Amino acid sequence: MSNVIALLHGPNLNLLGQREVDIYGTTTEADLLALVEKGAAGHGMTVEFFQSNHEGELVDQVHVVRHTCAAIVINGGALSHYGWSLHDALATFEGPVIEVHLSNTSKREPWRHTSVLTPVASGTIMGLGPHGYELAVDAIARLLNK
Amino acid sequence: MSNVIALLHGPNLNLLGQREVDIYGTTTEADLLALVEKGAAGHGMTVEFFQSNHEGELVDQVHVVRHTCAAIVINGGALSHYGWSLHDALATFEGPVIEVHLSNTSKREPWRHTSVLTPVASGTIMGLGPHGYELAVDAIARLLNK
Amino acid sequence: MSNVIALLHGPNLNLLGQREVDIYGTTTEADLLALVEKGAAGHGMTVEFFQSNHEGELVDQVHVVRHTCAAIVINGGALSHYGWSLHDALATFEGPVIEVHLSNTSKREPWRHTSVLTPVASGTIMGLGPHGYELAVDAIARLLNK
Amino acid sequence: MSNVIALLHGPNLNLLGQREVDIYGTTTEADLLALVEKGAAGHGMTVEFFQSNHEGELVDQVHVVRHTCAAIVINGGALSHYGWSLHDALATFEGPVIEVHLSNTSKREPWRHTSVLTPVASGTIMGLGPHGYELAVDAIARLLNK
Amino acid sequence: MSNVIALLHGPNLNLLGQREVDIYGTTTEADLLALVEKGAAGHGMTVEFFQSNHEGELVDQVHVVRHTCAAIVINGGALSHYGWSLHDALATFEGPVIEVHLSNTSKREPWRHTSVLTPVASGTIMGLGPHGYELAVDAIARLLNK
Amino acid sequence: MSNVIALLHGPNLNLLGQREVDIYGTTTEADLLALVEKGAAGHGMTVEFFQSNHEGELVDQVHVVRHTCAAIVINGGALSHYGWSLHDALATFEGPVIEVHLSNTSKREPWRHTSVLTPVASGTIMGLGPHGYELAVDAIARLLNK
Amino acid sequence: MSNVIALLHGPNLNLLGQREVDIYGTTTEADLLALVEKGAAGHGMTVEFFQSNHEGELVDQVHVVRHTCAAIVINGGALSHYGWSLHDALATFEGPVIEVHLSNTSKREPWRHTSVLTPVASGTIMGLGPHGYELAVDAIARLLNK
Amino acid sequence: MSNVIALLHGPNLNLLGQREVDIYGTTTEADLLALVEKGAAGHGMTVEFFQSNHEGELVDQVHVVRHTCAAIVINGGALSHYGWSLHDALATFEGPVIEVHLSNTSKREPWRHTSVLTPVASGTIMGLGPHGYELAVDAIARLLNK
Amino acid sequence: MSNVIALLHGPNLNLLGQREVDIYGTTTEADLLALVEKGAAGHGMTVEFFQSNHEGELVDQVHVVRHTCAAIVINGGALSHYGWSLHDALATFEGPVIEVHLSNTSKREPWRHTSVLTPVASGTIMGLGPHGYELAVDAIARLLNK
Amino acid sequence: MSNVIALLHGPNLNLLGQREVDIYGTTTEADLLALVEKGAAGHGMTVEFFQSNHEGELVDQVHVVRHTCAAIVINGGALSHYGWSLHDALATFEGPVIEVHLSNTSKREPWRHTSVLTPVASGTIMGLGPHGYELAVDAIARLLNK
Amino acid sequence: MSNVIALLHGPNLNLLGQREVDIYGTTTEADLLALVEKGAAGHGMTVEFFQSNHEGELVDQVHVVRHTCAAIVINGGALSHYGWSLHDALATFEGPVIEVHLSNTSKREPWRHTSVLTPVASGTIMGLGPHGYELAVDAIARLLNK
Amino acid sequence: MSNVIALLHGPNLNLLGQREVDIYGTTTEADLLALVEKGAAGHGMTVEFFQSNHEGELVDQVHVVRHTCAAIVINGGALSHYGWSLHDALATFEGPVIEVHLSNTSKREPWRHTSVLTPVASGTIMGLGPHGYELAVDAIARLLNK
Fold first, then answer.
1. Which domains are present in chain C?
2. How far away is chain G from the Cα of F141, in angstroms, using its nearest Cα?
3. Dihedral of CA L14/L16/L18/L20: which sign?
4. Can you list the residues of chain J whose pLDDT is less than 50?
5. CB F6 within 8 A of CB F71
6. A14 CB neighbour count, 10 Å cutoff
7. Which residues contact residue L20 at a Cβ distance below 8 angstroms, ignoring those fewer than 6 apart?
8. Cβ of G57 and C54 within 8 Å?
9. In chain J, N or C terminus with fewer CB closer than 10 Å?
10. Residue ranges of the alpha helices (H) in D14-101?
11. Has residue K1 got a pLDDT over 80?
12. Could you tell me which residues come within 8 angstroms of residue I130 by beta carbon, excluding any fewer than 6 positions away?
């Protein structure tokens, strides 16, 4: 079985740390990846990272990681709230899928209160900033008995 | 006038036969294409197939087939339910547009009950599995008097 | 097993060809029946036709054809949108049920956008005019392996 | 500063492991507490546990732990979905509040899809079973720099 | 198997016969209990009565009677319309649960038209005044073959 | 005063015992009538039974029994959810009207959760299978002091 | 051109004067017919009256009067609020259609506030009791220049 | 008792015959007044006419005619759909109030489908063009026994 | 007749002055009670104070003060927005019930915009801070002619 | 600083005491003004009264009193429920604004349940009849430390 | 053809620059008029300005400028969101109608998100402050080929 | 500071002038670009044009122009109504963002009535055809003091 965690990032997350720091903080995407890689290494796992502003590319990538990864950690960005194609792609993945949000979306605009990805995720971790990514890796390790 | 039918497939349909076989059956996308090609041949027509997980590519392709095809058969996958750009693209196509769904979407999640593509389709065929594709070709042949 | 298709028509369809020809065209109910019978004959099947403006009579007839017919083709007319008793009757039929609409109801008044019969139909064919009836017969033949 | 985590359990969670094991699993409340205590110990923290089927007692207890605990982990049970008094109580707590749900509530009845506690939580962890409690403790340790 | 029926009364039912007699009549809670006990005795059963204005105490009591009673008759009072914790408690009870309302709540304020307890009840008897309690006992006797 | 109970059955109830036995059980309509007659006889009453799949016939029959019967027991089938004409007819009946449903409709499709007949019924008994009919007869006997 | 006005009455109107006299008054259906006939005579017209509790029969009758009458006066009773088949039938009638309600339905239950027949009527007269029928005849005379 | 009918016209009705003649026809406000006066004279009554584009002036005028007129005929124009102050004013008038609309508002924009004046009118006459005004006068004569 | 005013406080009001002072100010519950007692004394009345975080205890207390107090001043806290049991309890109280809110709840979260207690209160005073309590006492004195 | 309270009355309040006395009582507008003036005098203040049935005049008057008055007491009548222009005018007033309603509007028609003026008022006093006006003056005196 | 642009201002705009300067800025109405006049002069046009807090006066003025002006620039203030009478008046104007809002109303309260004037405007310019007025004049010049 | 305006076009705008000319006119995308370039040149600015049918590419391009352009003019096509990722991208742009629509979308299908881009735009110009683009450039020049 694969020892790889797919870390998928949706639209605009490549700007993390450069925009709206009052909401998202100053951690960059590279910082997050380093955190996740470090966490994964602690469980003997590696990370395959993919960011895209295109829903289609994220769907394509989910199709790829169906064959290469044991689990998915996904922060869909705005697509979390209308990306039904991504929802359908994730539904075909057999391993654990952990949805992460840096901010507590229930405190923001109403359209961010519901995620269409949640019903196809194993679980969701929200509002805990970068810690949420570390916890997601731990969750996967536990679910996979790593 | 063109003798070509454009067969367009939306997100995740490339996985047909590999996922959720209880809903979609075991027929693969290649099987469907063969069915459609066979049906088209019976009416002296050929098929131009295009699948994409990207709404933008499907819009691009509709723009292409406006010049090369006489009719469209489309299964938009999840985009059927929120792909307004695809809706607008199809609205510019002058020949028949037949929307097909393998499953009876009214028996599934509420967000699948309404298709935003239906108002710009000539007609819709739903719930009849691969037969729906064969019927769509027959419908086109009748509408084009082939 | 029966070789008979029940063709059921709901309220006002007896006026086909005589009213609102911009929506429904000039084909009469007799024309449609002839089309269906011709299609059925091609598959070695016959047709039992029944039209009523009474929901109760349509329910009665569904009860009858449970014992005499192998499949149902139904255009419920306005009852498609509120005929829950007809919905319950069709739910008791064991063979294929194909719902047909001549027009693309999603282009008309909002109350016609949802059919309460769809959830108990095997499939739906909509917007293709009289061709929809021919396709419905073909669908049945395919589903019954005729 | 206090080294104590308040673990609060809402209505019916005292029956964990005895009811609806298909949804909640066989882990008992005592098992969960042991997990949380073990996790807390790893960070030099202890746990103050409180379960009640009374919203009023949970509100009272939040008032108590405002003075005695550094953080709250709360699974509100059904109160998560209508317990506005508990919402108001949690809003007065100054340390981190982590909301935990064993199951992925977005897959269950619609009334469980929204939690009224989320807007006053620091973050939410959902769908990960008992692991969610372990992660909640880790989250608190990170947020408190323990 | 237990021969005891738990009769549970929600908020304000202790005032029966003293308030709003145009809606609830002049029968007191003691009168109702006597009726239920008499009915139960006719089937060789006894009654364990419990009234509370606290949702938490009703949940606690449902937990108790899971071990001591064969069936529940419950009139949740206003909690019928928002008491999701009580809903969850009743869902853990394995014997018959009969929901009773003295008045026909569909004739009163809109918020009384839906009971959140109904989906976890075996059945509901509404609008028949004190007779509803007698019928509930008879229903239980029939369901338990007493 | 009349000693007759009108038992009215709406659409598709004539198929009881032959369809969807997982929902409605194997009891036939004849069995139900026998139960009701037996129950009525115990109170010195007789039963006038009427089933129809036509809302109009049920309205006609309510008009008839206004002159011949002392009470009505009605299971409106699907008409319970949209039969406003039947609602208006029942509103003209002066004796007790008991609405019965075999299944607990709150556990089924949303459109079955509300009955338009309830506001004109004396009371409703739901979810108790054939026992519900026996209880309805007892309710009538009590209400009429038989 | 025909000199006949079709007067159509929906469900329960045959009970006029016998029920709910606080809402509908003591005028009977025969009284109303006499009024309408007298009014029509004043314009050299006659009246063809038809009452039914069956939506199907009303649809059938609309089909008949398409060939025999110059105008329709209709009080659909409860069908005014859900009788889409009757709506479709009236839409096929080429002469004036006047919808009449005895009571001001906007003062009654919410489901009576909207009539599905209004969009296919030439006009509506509501709340004026029997006078509304007299006015409807006058309206027709004016519209037909009688 | 007064022999005067107040004819009240809301905003933009002073432009009748000059604008949107496809909807409102070519009859001018003066023509309508002449019709109403002629009709009133036939019953020995006179007319007091008032048009305003100001809701406040219409309210003022209703207060005036409470003392001078026996009945009101009102076409509120757009105020019919949001003029709650006018609604409250009309509620204080003790004689008959007849609401008139030239067009069938149910065939126009959704915000015109409901009139807030209807619940305080004796009756409504809609869709019959200028004839509606004549009928309103006749209705008043009948209601006042003129 | 009693000279006592019951002052009832719902959940979290015991923290007044200690939390969210930007919304509720720095006045404590004791300060409020002193204000109310002073005001009451001016009218020859005394105050019976009761605060609870338990809806059940507030219901119990309403039952008590039905026998001991002449009027109720109530600030239900969050229960104002979902405490239907408290609503039912207050409905049984025969004297004046004045609902008070310190803040103007219409400026806060949507769920605080509607109070379920208002329909059973004599009147409501909102947004005036501690002054609202003084006014409530004055209102009671006026209503009781003290 | 000004010692003047502006008392503003919206549409139809000039009829107080003359209409719907079951709802509004027999107190006239002059009586109310006398009460308010007496109350104001007790705090060394005077009253500037203005009633209009025109929203525009009320807006104009708010603009005037911005320069002449220290506070506003307003009963907007029906405009309370749709007068957004009045809302915007009041938002520009810098002193206290007290909204008063004689009746408890939550017990009346649904459109009266929400006031669009409340979000720009300092506070609201509702349901206490003429006493509400006296309390409003007292509130202003307290808020202005008079 | 007229060379005059009607500039219409709705309620409270006369206070521009004096109130809520964080939303509307410090530009006064006179400043705006000067800007518009300067812009109009550049296209050989003049401006007829009218402000009112009365919807009726704005309707009256639209009727006037139908005869005197070639185009309308309108900022309806709060009436933009409920002024259906103004909507109907503008619908009768034959030249261009440009709707202007100083602020981006989609960032403010929900009731300001939709303008009832937009469907009868040629176009809308929103959120650009005083520049929006200048652009509106330019737009008119372009549309009129000035 | 950059002198470049980014002109961004969403899906299907590349077909301008070739499709639905009744709605969008005969101006092509090249014509529009020429207009915008000419307008920009008048203010000493240049234009960077980008059209895509892919939301992802538009998001990518917004990220690019954050570093290269001083302002954005965007017509999002159908993405205006569901493109939340594009919304989030635009929110990160620091200069002016002007949203343009050729047609008045409030006159078209309901789903086009709300733009999800508006809340992150500086302003919106709608319904003025190609002129809207010219005005957008002028707006930018004004906002940037060019």
1. 1-6+26-53+70-77+96-139 (3.40.50.9100)
2. 25
3. positive
4. none
5. yes
6. 19
7. B91, B92
8. yes
9. N
10. 21-24, 29-41, 55-68, 84-90
11. no
12. I25, I27, I31, I32, I35, I102
CA distance F43 to chain C (A): 34
pLDDT tens profile H2-59: 999 999 999 999 999 887 788 778 899 999 999 999 999 999 999 999 999 999 999 9
* pLDDT surpassing 90 at residue B72: yes
> What's the Cα-to-Cα distance from K133 to each of I123, K126, L43, L46, L72, rounded to whole Å?
47, 10, 19, 25, 20
Return the active site residues of I: 24, 101
Whether F2 and F11 have beta carbons less than 8 Å apart is answered as: no
Single out the residue of L30, L31, L32, L11 nearest to residue L83, CA to CA. L11
Q: Are strands C46-51 and C71-75 parallel, antiparallel or unpaired?
A: unpaired
Give the CA-trace dihedral at B103, B109, B111, B113, to 10 degrees: 50
User: Is pLDDT above 80 for D24?
Assistant: no
Catalytic residue among E9, E87, E101, E133: E101
CB neighbourhood size of C119 (10 A): 15
Q: How far is CA E60 from CA I56, I89, K140, in A?
A: 14, 22, 73
Q: Model confidence over I25-60: pLDDT tens digits?
A: 889 999 999 999 999 999 999 999 999 999 999 999
pLDDT of residue F26: 87
Cα angle vertex H23, ends H18, H28, to 5°? 35
Are H19 and K85 within 8 A, CB to CB?
A: no
Interface test with L, best of A53, A58, A80, A115 (most L CBs within 10 A): A53
**At a CB cut-off of 8 Å and minimum separation 6, what does C125 contact?**
B123, B124, B125, B126, B135, C98, C99, C100, C101, C132, C135, C136, C139
The answer to whether A97 and A74 are in contact (CB under 8 A) is yes
Where chain F has pLDDT below 50, the residues are none
ipTM value, please give it.
Answer: 0.95
**CA J118/CA D11 separation, integer angstroms:** 37
Question: For each successive 10 residues of chain G (146 residues), what is the average pLDDT?
Answer: 94 91 87 97 97 98 97 98 98 97 96 97 97 97 93
Cβ atoms of K128 and L136 within 8 Å: the answer is: no
Could you tell me the pTM of the whole model?
Answer: 0.96
Q: Test J87 with K78 for CB contact under 8 angstroms.
A: yes
Q: Positive or negative, the Cα torsion across D82, D83, D85, D86?
A: negative
pLDDT in tens, B91-146: 999 999 999 999 999 999 999 999 999 999 999 999 999 999 999 999 999 999 98
Give me the residues paired with residue E98 across strands. E73, E123
* Residue B135 DSSP SS3: helix
DSSP bridge partners of B38: none
Identify all chain A residues contacting D122, using CB atoms and an 8 Å cutoff: 104, 127-128
pLDDT at residue J18, as a whole number? 84
**Residue pointed to by tokens 């300092």:** J122
F92 with G20: Cβ contact below 8 A: yes
Residue ranges of chain E whose CB lies within 8 Å of a chain F CB = 98, 104, 106-107, 113-115, 118-119, 121-128, 131-132, 134-135, 138-139, 142-143
Specify the pairing of strand E123-126 against strand E97-101.
Answer: parallel
Residues on chain A touching B55 (C-beta within 8 angstroms): 55-56, 85
pLDDT at B73 over 90: yes
Report pLDDT digits (tens) over K30-61: 999 999 999 999 999 999 999 999 999 999 99
Taking only the tens place, the pLDDT of each residue in L105-145 is 999 999 999 999 999 999 999 999 999 999 999 999 999 99
Residue G93's region, left for phi above 0, alpha for psi from -120 to 50, else beta, is: beta
Pair D39, D65: CB distance under 8 Å: no
Work out how many CB contacts closer than 8 A connect G with H: 82
In angstroms, rounded to a whole number, what is the distance separating the alpha carbons of residues K85 and K51? 16
